Amino acid sequence: MSEPSPKDPAPAEDADSEPRPGRVRKPIGWSTIIIAVLVAVSAGLVWRRDGADGVLDILTHDLSLFSGILPRVLAGCLLGAFISEILPHEKVSRSLGPKSGLMGLLIGTAFGAILPGGPFTAYPVASALLAVGADFGATIAMVVSWTLIGYGRAVAWEIPIMGTDFTLWRIVISLPLPVLAGALGRFVYVRLYPKPLAKDDEN
């Protein structure tokens, strides 16, 4: 058996094929610590004012609220997991990836505008898009569009309360904002996480 010649180095991997630098999610971060401290301080103030009965009453109501929200959180997380497995990574990366340009931002904006459901649907879907190749810019455009233009809230709440004219003008004025936010997010992300150079470029 012939051994590979040392003069023929292994081909360098394309820089585009390397995974995006991701942020490792820690089970306990600064946000968790801050929230825990605020909860402890608030519980102490309630206990001082209302005693143990006041604290237990709040805990009972919170457990009831948590039991009602938990199925939605579970469904949203499952939806995000299934979407990340179903969507073709190459097509998502081509349509919403770093090289998708303005079209990727427009697709993200349109998808966010028609995305139904509340935050238990939107954020797991956004996380799934990031996992299958969408870049920060397109995902930011989707989330901002869902927040500002989402038809669900406009039809269910805004039109009946504020009227059609107000809703239409508010949507028209909000249309460029998701694209601008996505472009800014893409600009900042490229500078925070510069693309690693291929080995051929380093030589």
TrEMBL record:
Its main location: membrane. It is found in: Cell membrane. It holds the Pfam family ArsP_1. InterPro entries: DUF318 (IPR005524). It comes from the Bacteria. Keywords: Cell membrane, Membrane, Transmembrane, Transmembrane helix. It is a multi-pass membrane protein. Belongs to the UPF0718 family. This is Permease. The lineage of its organism: Bacteria, Pseudomonadati, Pseudomonadota, Alphaproteobacteria, Hyphomicrobiales.
